């Protein structure tokens, strides 16, 4: 029997409610395990898996607020797992968790996104290879740049979290004896911190100033 649109919407809203309930249960059990000197990592990992595996086909009727909440909870879940792995001195799992966390935070960073910056820089460099002598072309470029939206406060908060995650990765790689990787993320931290401190930063200048 085919599901009606109303039933489908009710099922999707029930999935949202059930997901929040399961996360609360996992958090409570993980906290209890910690109090009894048991590892909370399996439960923390379950929360991450639950959020990562939410079927997109069954979340089409979620509101933007619901989606934003789930995205934030996903970051919180992976942060808790990463911190738990660090505390347990499980460096391999800590590295994997932090890398996944960084990917989520980078996606939430908007124009600050490291991947977006690299892509924009490549496009910027390709444009610079083309010599443009027309004044009208130059004016068009200036007009386009001035209309580029700048980062929001949410983007800045996301990238601040990303910098903290990179800092943890630096320490993990240092503890693993991977100094090259640690130095790489340390450089990223410095560049991103400089961008955060620029009060007139726009998405256009992010692309242009990132090495």
Describe this structure in words.
With 211 residues, the protein is mainly alpha-helical. The C terminus is likely disordered. It has nine helices and no strands. The termini are far apart. Helix 1 runs antiparallel to helix 2, helix 3 packs antiparallel against helix 4 and helix 4 packs antiparallel against helix 7. The protein is flat and about 55 Å long. The longest helix has 31 residues. The protein has a domain of 132 residues.
What is the fold's blueprint, element by element?
Elements: H1 5-35, H2 41-52, H3 64-87, H4 91-107, H5 114-128, H6 135-146, H7 153-175, H8 179-196, H9 203-209
Helix pairs in contact: 1-2, 2-3, 3-4, 4-7, 5-9, 7-8
Properties at a glance:
9 helices; disordered C terminus; 211 residues
How would you summarize what this structure contains?
Helix 2 packs antiparallel against helix 3 (64-87) and helix 4 runs antiparallel to helix 7 (153-175).
Mean pLDDT: 83
Outline, from the CA principal axes?
A: flat
Strand content: under 5%
Low confidence ranges: 133-148, 202-211
Distance between the termini: 57 Å
Helix and strand sequence? HHHHHHHHH
Name the quaternary structure. single chain
Alpha-carbon Rg, integer = 21 Å
The largest β sheet comes out as: none
Decide which structural class fits the backbone.
Answer: mainly alpha
The amount of helix comes to: over 70%
Count of DSSP E strands?
0
Annotation field: number of helices: 9
């Amino acid at each position: 029997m085919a599901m009606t649109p109303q039933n489908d919407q009710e099922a999707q809203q029930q999935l949202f409610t059930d997901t929040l309930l399961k996360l609360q249960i996992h958090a409570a059990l993980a906290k209890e395990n910690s109090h009894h000197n048991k590892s909370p990592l399996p439960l923390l990992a379950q929360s991450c898996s639950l959020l990562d595996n939410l079927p997109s086909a069954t979340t089409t009727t979620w509101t933007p607020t619901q989606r934003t909440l789930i995205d934030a909870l996903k970051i919180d879940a992976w942060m808790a797992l990463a911190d738990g792995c660090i505390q347990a001195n499980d460096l391999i799992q800590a590295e994997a968790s932090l890398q996944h966390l960084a990917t989520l935070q980078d996606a939430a960073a908007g124009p600050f996104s490291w991947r977006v910056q690299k892509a924009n820089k490549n496009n910027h460099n390709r444009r610079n290879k083309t010599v443009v002598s027309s004044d009208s072309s130059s004016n068009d470029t200036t007009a386009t740049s001035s209309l580029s939206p700048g980062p929001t406060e949410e983007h800045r908060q996301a990238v601040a979290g990303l910098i903290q995650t990179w800092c943890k990765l630096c320490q993990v790689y240092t503890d693993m004896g991977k100094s090259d990787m640690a130095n790489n993320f340390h450089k990223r931290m410095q560049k991103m911190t400089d961008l955060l401190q620029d009060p007139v930063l726009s998405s256009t200048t992010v692309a242009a100033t990132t090495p």
